[in-house]
Amino acid sequence: MSFKPSAFRVLLTALFISLLALSVAAQDAEEEATEEYSYLNPMGRVPELWTDEQTDCAAAGVAREGPWTIGVSNFSLGNSWRVQMIAELEAAAAGNPDIEELIITNADGNVAKQISDIDDLIARGVDAILITPGSPEGIAPSVEDAYNAGIVTIVFNDFVDTDQFHSILWADQFKFGYIGGAWLREQLGGQGNIVILEGIAGMGVSDLRSEGAIAGLGEGINILARQPAGWDYAQGKAAMEDFIAAYPGQIDGVYSQGGAMSQGAIDAFLAAGLDPVPVPGEGYNGFLKYWAANLENGFSSIGPDEPTWQSVAALEVAIDCLNGETVAKWTELEHPLITDENVHEYVRFDCPDGVWSNTLMSPEAITEMYDCEGTGEATEEASS
Fold first, then answer.
1. Is the pLDDT of residue 380 over 90?
2. Is residue 187, in this structure, part of any structural domain at all?
3. 129 and 221 share one domain
4. Which pTM was predicted?
5. Which of 14, 33, 204, 329 is the most buried (most CB within 10 A)?
6. Exposure of 331 by Cβ count < 10 A (0-12 exposed, 13-18 middle, 19+ buried)?
7. How many beta carbons lie within 10 A of that of residue 141, not counting itself?
8. Which has the closest alpha carbon to 44: 168, 196, 173?
9. Can you give the residue range of the structural domain that contains 82?
10. Domains identified in the chain, total number
11. What number is the average pLDDT over the span 67-95?
12. pLDDT of residue 36
């Protein structure tokens, strides 16, 4: 068979066109896949240890008859969300006649103190221990100690770098961050400068929310600065005041990991005589009141709603395990999504700012706990 250069060039040209077409198609498919993950369909990331495993508590030898003593190792009460989370747990325990004592420790945001707290609860011989990890790595040995001591060990609110526990309840915090980041990218048209208000340094929740937000923001958004503010209103406002002073006229948006910090950021802009820039939020009532009252003025936001009732869910799993039932090793908690369209379903204008909306407490119980002025039907008041 003779070789014909002209025919070979035709073949190469055809092959090149085919490869180019495939490349364009692949790029289009990739762009479509990227667009598919918006704040309405976010990417998520569960911990590497995640499995569909079940825990047979009877076979594990941890079932026992009540009444029980339940220990709680809480990492912090440093913001109003955590205060309400513990209040919901206390109310649930008080209503259960099989719980003889609820022992709650508070590590004040100190990992070493939390390790000591867990050791103390183990020494006191609690029947079950509920743990909100301050550091996924730092407290893992203590979680393992509780588990190996035959204590029903339930982790919630954050993940931990061990699989030696009976059950964990966890909301996808990467997804939480991605929702806010992708929404902010859309608000800014994919370009601009932002600052980030983070939670507590070293906590898995904070790290994952920031990772998710950065993934959602994309490459066109420039991050001027990041600052931990403890998911707290006062710290968030102070950090935002510093950002405004450091970057005058340069901040196009704010990614905030939590609603109280979002409200702090808004108030910092207003105090400086500036219009608030786009900022995602959460179910913090102070932020929801500003949001709902200013919709007609063009204010828009979005808010994944972290459940304060996860403490109650953790208690219920612990009780099931103490009763010898089989429980899920891993349970993912969903974040309801607060939007411009449904924010009025979450806000309570008659209540103080510190109320959190994703609660199992009745409106009457919230009214009593926070000394609200009504039962949830208050007249909307403008905020500016």
1. no
2. yes
3. no
4. 0.84
5. 204
6. middle
7. 13
8. 173
9. 54-171+308-333
10. 2
11. 96
12. 47
